[in-house]
Amino acid sequence: MDQYTNWGFTQNPFQPSPLVSSESGSRLFAGRVEELNTASRSLYRQGKITCVEGAYGLGKTSLVNVAAYRAFKKYLSKDSQQLLIPARESFQLHAGLTSEDFRLKVYLSVAQTLIERAGEVRDMSFSMENSDALNAWLNDPLLAHVEGGFNIAGWGLKLGKPPVANDSAGFEREGFINVVQSWLQNIFPSYGSGGVVCVIDNLEILESASAARKTLEALRDTLFNQQGLRWVFCGASGILTGVTASARLQDYLLPLVELKPLAADDLGDVLEARINEYVPAGKEFYLPLGTTQLKNLYWVVNYNLRGLLSQADAYCEWIVGLGDQKRPVSEEDKDSMFDNWLQATTKRNYDKARTQVEKDAWEILDVTFGSALKGSFTAANFSYIKSNSFLTISQETIAKHVSKLVTQGYLSASFDEDTIGSGKKIATRYDVTTKACLAHYGRYLSKETHAIEPAIWESGGRLLRGNAE
Ligand SMILES: Nc1ncnc2c1ncn2[C@@H]1O[C@H](COP(=O)(O)OP(=O)(O)OP(=O)(O)O)[C@@H](O)[C@H]1O
Ligand SMILES: [Mg+2]
């Protein structure tokens, strides 16, 4: 039995996976009222693609999943005319994936979505006699046929095969896609009647905006124009800004929904929703930390939700290791226990990082964690880094250290191409990672930071990203 079961939970409340398109995902969603509204409104725009951008681990995927699910529910409760059905999974593009393979993947998933969600709708026991789209969907002869044992996985096995004209796999592909397309046209007889919401997530995997742009442009006519599909593009800082510059896509793309960090004041709601979801009604539960400690940790991990949850989990595990007698019960004990852990864990992180990161690179991080840069910078800031440190190295050497920090996982980078079409990628922005935050806080506690400007940690409650509250 894991600690959370012992503490009264049915599952780990700090699981760092994204919220999914389901009742549970929707209940766990906290804060972000405005961004959710904007994203939802975008989903309803026929023939247009919703774009969501934000730093890693902030909650992009969760926002999109929950927006799509709530739109689905709105149709079922007759609060909307458009039927939007969240796809069962999100899609990723990566170098080497052909557009043909990607198309097949999408239609496989769409077919499976229509099958699975139909089951869900039936389980909800809605009576929707007047709904044409719902009738078309739930009473489609194909659905009745495939629900009984159509082997979608069998099609999936053919995914790896290169499409060869006229071979049997190629024929099956097109045949299958045609069937799904006509099914979609049946359920969604016009562009305005809705669609299956398909998300292309983590566009930053393509590494440069030009690569992302080219790949997406190639899919425009075959996928993004398909009646019965609604599209969402989702990516980390920078990549979508580059994609929106595409002349071929421009008219299809809605203005970016830019995600800021969840407000620290919403953390109470995040925790409460997880307790409500994972503690059976009326049952007792225990946690060694509350909102106060979560807020403190949130600050240390630079307002990164994923980092927060995984570190909260690490703290809980540490408490278990101490033994039942030592677990903190009073608010005061929780506070001091948490402080002990935070000091020990960040110092341990620092000790480990120390052996990897070179002395000059640490000084670059010291300036990055100062009150001016607040954890993010661009190549234009290299001269600032030089003049606000005691470093006597050239900007080129700073650049070398910076790329090593990216490779080592202390900085994350967003990329763009240097000149249109050259295909060469250049980093446009660097952000400190959770790993860097934990190590640097340990360095600060060890009083080893070395820069002209004091570390951001000096100023207590001051925000690194500055815009979380
Ligand atoms: N509004 C929210 N309320 C409660 N929890 C949330 C919310 N948004 C995100 N989370 C939680 O935060 C974590 C990170 O969310 P998510 O995976 O959606 O972020 P992301 O921006 O898509 O990350 P990445 O850039 O790595 O893809 C997840 O564990 C998720 O459950
Ligand atoms: Mg994501």
Task: Tell me what the structure shows.
This protein is α/β, with parallel strands linked by helices and 469 residues long. The protein folds into three domains: 32-258, Rossmann fold; 264-354, no CATH class; 359-459, Arc Repressor Mutant, subunit A. The chain is 49% helix and 9% strand. The protein has 19 helices and eight strands. The protein has helices at residues 3-6, 23-28, 33-43, 60-76, 99-123, 132-138, 141-147, 152-156, 168-187, 209-224, 239-243, 267-278, 291-300, 305-322, 331-354, 359-368, 382-387, 395-407, 434-445; strands at 49-53, 83-86, 194-200, 229-235, 257-258, 376-377, 411-417, 425-432. The strands form two sheets. It has a five-stranded parallel sheet with strand order 2-3-4-1-5. A three-stranded antiparallel sheet has the order 6-8-7. Helix 10 links the parallel strand 3 and strand 4 (229-235). The radius of gyration is 25 Å and the shape is globular. The two termini are 38 Å apart. Residues 147-171 have low confidence and may be disordered. Adenosine-5'-triphosphate is lined by residues 16-19, 28-32, 54, 56-62, 202, 236, 262, 270, 305-306, 309.
